């Protein structure tokens, strides 16, 4: 009897192991089968391994594009994740009346673990309320002296180059354009957001350690974004250093601490209203807690992506002699005929056709936001491009796939060629083709109910910076065969883009 009982007890662990093994296999089969009718890499269909590896290796934008090229415009990249490169589909998903909601990806965008922001919130009602309070500020519509504030930072950029980075026949002073572009966009956004620039260009240093923080943290953050369940578990611990305190203000925490001090001063009884973004937020009813979280989003969203757009476009200008010379000729002719001021105004820049073509082509060839930005299929499921997709499936957008589509942009879609924006005919078909191309590029700032409210400010920066640089200086890449270090983590971490700058002699 004792032997029988011992045998029974001894078999319990084996029985439990067998039970859990069977349960695991059944679950894996269910996970695989749920989206098995949609093609994609095998490992992506049964685990998060493929997606996590792609997020960590620094080539996410190309990997997503390759998947859609190989498996079709709707491809499986995870157990519950799809990637779509079809512009019409993603535009429908983002429509104002769409029942789609933000997916789990956005959980990682909560820079303050106790407070959502306009980007991180998945609640449609909360998003609507935050957008109503912040849209006028983010867009710059209620920012006093918007253009002069940007012009002041353009002037600081020019002054820094003249002071420290002009090379001559007797001296070699290479400039890391990637770094200085980040300084420029950080000073622009802090000037517009808080009324005073933080002084990156003036000091030529990483004030508050922001850039170092992004290089250390953002890749990990974006990798976690593909594992939203892990974000929920880790978030408080992960962002502990982001919460400002008197003893902990390193990296992002230090930046957040400075922003918090600015916010707290604005909410002090008797504080005077200010004509900056934060002042607009307060005027529209943003609470102190909401403002603490929103100010960090202002800096991150308003600097990193615009810096990437400036770097990538400028890199393609410098590496394409035809573009460089044509753009310079247009700028010089506009100066000679007194068609542009010094500094150039946004209105004047919009009247330079080749400049606008270069900016559009730069955004197209290298869209600055390439994370999944996933949306969740609504209850009842959906039919996407003729394929049934169950509710709760996460649909990511393939930015590089959309902007490099040969169906939209022609057989040379992989080539940087601004002239494509100046070759439209007068027929109805040609006007429709132009409209479609422009819509796809505009959608790099998202679209519909999730449109980035700050894209108008970014476009003003792009309209000014290339003209003001090229009218004063000659540029050449220091290392044409390896022009920069670029790591894609949903957004780009870029550095070591060294250029030789000389003063123009004509």
Automatic annotation (TrEMBL):
<keyword id="KW-0479">Metal-binding</keyword>
<keyword id="KW-0503">Monooxygenase</keyword>
<dbReference type="InterPro" id="IPR036396">
    <property type="entry name" value="Cyt_P450_sf"/>
</dbReference>
<feature type="binding site" description="axial binding residue">
    <location>
        <position position="452"/>
    </location>
    <ligand>
        <name>heme</name>
    </ligand>
</feature>
<keyword id="KW-0472">Membrane</keyword>
<keyword id="KW-1133">Transmembrane helix</keyword>
<feature type="transmembrane region" description="Helical">
    <location>
        <begin position="12"/>
        <end position="30"/>
    </location>
</feature>
<keyword id="KW-0812">Transmembrane</keyword>
<dbReference type="GO" id="GO:0020037">
    <property type="term" value="F:heme binding"/>
</dbReference>
<protein>
    <submittedName>
        <fullName>Cytochrome P450 monooxygenase</fullName>
    </submittedName>
</protein>
<dbReference type="InterPro" id="IPR050121">
    <property type="entry name" value="Cytochrome_P450_monoxygenase"/>
</dbReference>
<keyword id="KW-0560">Oxidoreductase</keyword>
<dbReference type="GO" id="GO:0004497">
    <property type="term" value="F:monooxygenase activity"/>
</dbReference>
<dbReference type="GO" id="GO:0005506">
    <property type="term" value="F:iron ion binding"/>
</dbReference>
<dbReference type="Pfam" id="PF00067">
    <property type="entry name" value="p450"/>
</dbReference>
<dbReference type="GO" id="GO:0016705">
    <property type="term" value="F:oxidoreductase activity, acting on paired donors, with incorporation or reduction of molecular oxygen"/>
</dbReference>
<keyword id="KW-0349">Heme</keyword>
<dbReference type="InterPro" id="IPR001128">
    <property type="entry name" value="Cyt_P450"/>
</dbReference>
<dbReference type="InterPro" id="IPR002401">
    <property type="entry name" value="Cyt_P450_E_grp-I"/>
</dbReference>
<keyword id="KW-0408">Iron</keyword>
């Amino acid at each position: 009897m004792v032997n029988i009982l011992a045998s029974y007890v001894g078999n319990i662990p084996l029985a439990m192991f067998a039970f859990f093994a069977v349960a695991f296999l059944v679950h894996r089969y269910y996970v695989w089968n749920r989206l098995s009718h949609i093609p994609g890499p095998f490992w992506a269909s049964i685990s998060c391994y493929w997606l996590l590896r792609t997020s960590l290796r620094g080539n996410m934008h190309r990997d997503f594009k390759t998947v859609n090229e190989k498996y079709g415009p709707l491809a499986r990249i995870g157990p519950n994740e799809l990637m779509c490169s079809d512009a019409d589909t993603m535009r429908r998903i983002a429509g104002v009346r769409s029942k789609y909601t933000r997916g789990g990806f956005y959980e990682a965008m909560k820079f303050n673990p106790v407070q959502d922001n306009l980007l991180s919130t998945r609640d449609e009602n909360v998003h609507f309320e935050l957008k109503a309070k912040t849209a006028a500020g983010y867009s710059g519509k209620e920012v006093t002296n918007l253009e002069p504030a940007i012009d002041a930072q353009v002037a600081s950029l020019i002054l820094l180059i003249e002071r420290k980075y002009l090379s001559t026949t007797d001296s070699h002073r290479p400039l890391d354009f990637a770094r200085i572009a980040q300084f420029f966009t950080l000073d622009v956004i802090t000037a517009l957001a808080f009324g005073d620039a933080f002084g990156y260009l003036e000091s030529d240093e990483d004030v508050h350690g922001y850039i170092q923080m992004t290089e250390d943290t953002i890749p990990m953050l974006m990798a976690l974004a593909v594992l939203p369940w892990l974000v929920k578990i880790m978030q408080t611990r992960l962002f502990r250093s982001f919460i400002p305190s008197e003893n902990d203000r390193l990296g992002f925490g230090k930046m957040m601490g400075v922003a918090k001090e600015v916010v707290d001063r604005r909410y002090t009884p008797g504080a005077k209203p200010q004509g900056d973004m934060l002042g607009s937020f307060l005027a529209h009813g943003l609470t102190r807690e909401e403002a603490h979280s929103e100010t960090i989003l202002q800096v991150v969203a308003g600097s990193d992506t615009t810096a990437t757009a400036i770097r990538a476009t400028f890199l393609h200008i410098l590496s394409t002699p035809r573009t460089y010379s044509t753009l310079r000729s247009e700028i010089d002719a506009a100066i000679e005929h007194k068609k542009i001021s010094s500094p150039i105004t946004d209105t004047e820049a919009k009247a330079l056709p080749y400049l606008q073509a270069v900016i559009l082509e730069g955004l197209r060839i290298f869209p600055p936001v390439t994370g999944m930005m996933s949306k969740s299929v609504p209850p009842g499921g959906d039919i996407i491009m003729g394929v049934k997709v169950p509710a709760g499936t996460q649909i990511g957008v393939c930015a590089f796939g959309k902007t490099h589509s040969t169906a939209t942009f022609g057989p040379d879609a992989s080539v940087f060629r601004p002239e494509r924006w100046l070759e439209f005919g007068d027929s109805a078909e040609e006007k429709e083709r132009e409209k479609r191309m422009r819509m796809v590029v505009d959608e790099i700032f998202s679209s519909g109910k999730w449109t980035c409210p700050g894209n108008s400010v970014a476009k003003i920066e792009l309209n000014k910076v290339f003209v003001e640089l090229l009218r004063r200086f000659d540029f050449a890449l220091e290392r044409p065969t390896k022009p920069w270090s670029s790591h894609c983590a949903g957004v780009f971490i870029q550095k070591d883009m060294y250029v030789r700058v000389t003063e123009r002699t004509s």
